[in-house]
Amino acid sequence: MQNTSIALMIFGEPGSTRNALTEEKYKKLAAHFIEKGFDVNSVLYNDTIADKLAKELPRYKAILVWVNPIEQQSDRKILDDLLMKLSAQGCFVSAHPDTILKMGTKEILYRIRETEFGGDIKLYHSFDDFKERFLLSKDSTGIRILKQYRGNGGDGIFKIDTTNIKNNKISITHAKIGDEEKMMTIDELFKLFESYFKTSSMFIDQKWNQNIVNGMVRCYLSGSKVAGFGYQEINALYPITESNPVFKKPSQRFYFSENCGLFKDLKYIMENSWVSKLQEITGITNEMLPVIWDADFFINKINTENTSEKYSLCEINVSCVSPFPESAIPYIGEEVKKRIGK
Predict the structure, then answer these.
(1) Which pLDDT score is estimated for 242?
(2) Residue 255: left if φ>0, alpha if ψ -120 to 50, beta else—which one?
């Protein structure tokens, strides 16, 4: 009898009662798999039970994982090691740790900088490299975004404003907090990032995009196919201006199907050009693409037919893409079916 068992893995502290089969973000996906004849179970993960799971999980044909890169002040080293071993034993794992490292870290922004949606991106491999080059890389706006190698929820993402650097004053805002702007000297700035480089192997330096006020489009993909969209008007680091003098928290994300006419230009270029370029740059085959991932885009020019002028890439998310539009569910189902040969 063919093995059709699927584990939906989510993070849970010891004693947690979380259940992917009933949790709002995953229950419709779980119901879809069950309707299609799969045996589906929820699996809670935390590092304390990794050894136990190593013995239990090989019975599953597919393991779909939703655990953040930085979860409860920890990282995914133990989990990724477990998933690598399970994959080697024949389990289909998505997203696979190798795929995450190739396209799901902030380094990908640097690697795709020459594509349609790229831009002014720099990379620092060490604190010494950062200290030597960062203040030489300012453009006319004097504002940059620094992103650590791996992170989520705005953790390790900073807005750096050096427009007042002649007075030895630099404004820094951590996206995780959002509304707390701190003034630092140059020495204080370097001292702060020296501590971050001790835990992060690199930082990405991205030009500040003032078009963030136009909102952000999230393009959801399953494999190489666009599976839906999300639009969020206000995101982390939304600027405080004279017309918007009060800090605004990130707003609700609204979801649209893959056939939404508002984003048909983005769907076309993603499926017919950009994803294949991403694969060429990273070496990721179709079989390695995650069953659910997304790319976030700034909207630079609203009324233009030139897609590469209209959008630029903010980041790619691979490790823990949820929630996702309902339109993505059948795509995920078909992708899993294809990967395990059901």
Answers:
(1) 67
(2) beta
